[in-house]
Design a protein that fits this description.
Blueprint (H helix, E strand, L loop, with lengths): L1 H13 L4 H18 L8 H13 L4 H20 L25 H10 L3 H13 L3 H5 L6 E2 L4 E5 L5 E5 L2 H13 L17 E2 L2 E2 L2 H9 L10 H13 L4 H8 L4 H4 L1 H17 L4
Antiparallel strand pairs: 1-2, 2-3, 4-5
Helix pairs in contact: 1-2, 5-6, 6-8, 6-10, 10-13
Length: 281
């Protein structure tokens, strides 16, 4: 089974999946292998069932179990395609996910956070995440040449290597220029700086963990991390009248169903306003 796992991971690399995604697949498949201790063609539906029970007894969230099952489904689909197995043992299994509304900051909360930002680097990162709704991985991969200062547009490389363009506001532009001036990086960039990272710490491209530490520094303890700024970006746009399709494009979602989760948040927002303002609410 170990060789099958490696072959599967190799195919993920060929298909341009991110290193983070591949590592997640590897961890789940190795965990499954050590739990089952069977060859790929010996695994039965009962084994899959018992593994799901094992995950549930560990107290994992349904969303985590659903992700692990999805990885197993992809793996066994790969094996079936390459005729390593005759029957896919994962067919018919599903995990009902818990529906959770995205956590987001109020306009007053985000304003306070942006005002408290201490260093030019921290200020630029917080402003840009909120102004664009980009993912942390996308921010870490930004280069100087990705910014079009005249149009206030940034080219972002999203999931699966897909490129899209996001907009940024005057506040983010000001924070970026202050940060770049401090680091002695020029703007607008010349053609010779195509691979120079936009955000660096000690001369090295910033990492996801470093961004997490910066954002958590300003969030309340119950807040989870930088993704909340992405949720906040989407929710504030919809609350102020943006259409769902436009928000989908800005976020880089492949399916509008992913974006629709934010409409539930805006409905809750409307209910709150209704109760506060209607005389008979």
């Amino acid at each position: 089974m170990l060789s099958d796992i490696q072959n599967f991971l190799d195919e993920l690399k060929i298909k341009n999946n991110s290193p983070r995604t591949i590592e997640s697949y590897k961890q789940t498949l190795m965990e499954f292998y050590h739990h089952i201790k069977k060859d790929s063609n010996e695994i039965t539906r009962e084994d899959i069932h018992n593994y799901l029970i094992f995950l549930n007894e560990r107290g994992l969230q349904k969303s985590t179990i659903a992700l692990k099952l999805a990885i197993l489904k992809s793996f066994f689909k790969f094996l079936l395609k390459h005729k390593k197995i005759n029957i896919n043992p994962t067919v018919g299994f599903s995990v009902k996910k818990e529906k959770k509304l995205p956590v987001f900051l109020s306009e007053e909360e985000i304003k306070t956070i942006l005002e408290k930002a201490q260093s030019p680097l921290e200020k630029a990162i917080l402003e840009l995440l909120y102004a664009t709704g980009m993912r942390v991985s996308e921010l870490c991969n930004l280069n100087l040449f990705d910014i079009n200062w005249e149009k206030r547009i940034i080219k972002v490389q999203g999931k699966g290597g897909k490129e899209r363009f996001v907009l940024f506001n005057e506040s983010a532009e000001r924070a970026l220029k202050i940060y770049l001036a401090q680091t002695n990086q020029s703007y607008p960039p010349s053609e010779s700086v195509n691979e120079i990272a936009l955000f660096t710490i000690n001369g090295k491209r910033i990492t996801r963990n470093q961004v997490y530490r910066i954002v958590r520094k300003y969030l309340k303890t119950e807040r989870k991390g930088p993704h909340i700024l992405r949720h906040t970006f989407a929710t504030h746009l919809l609350n102020r009248g943006a259409d769902l399709v436009s928000v989908k494009e800005l976020l880089g979602h492949a399916d509008i169903k992913t974006t629709q989760k934010y409409t539930h948040v805006t409905i809750e927002h409307l209910k709150k306003i209704y109760k506060q303002t209607h005389p008979r609410a």
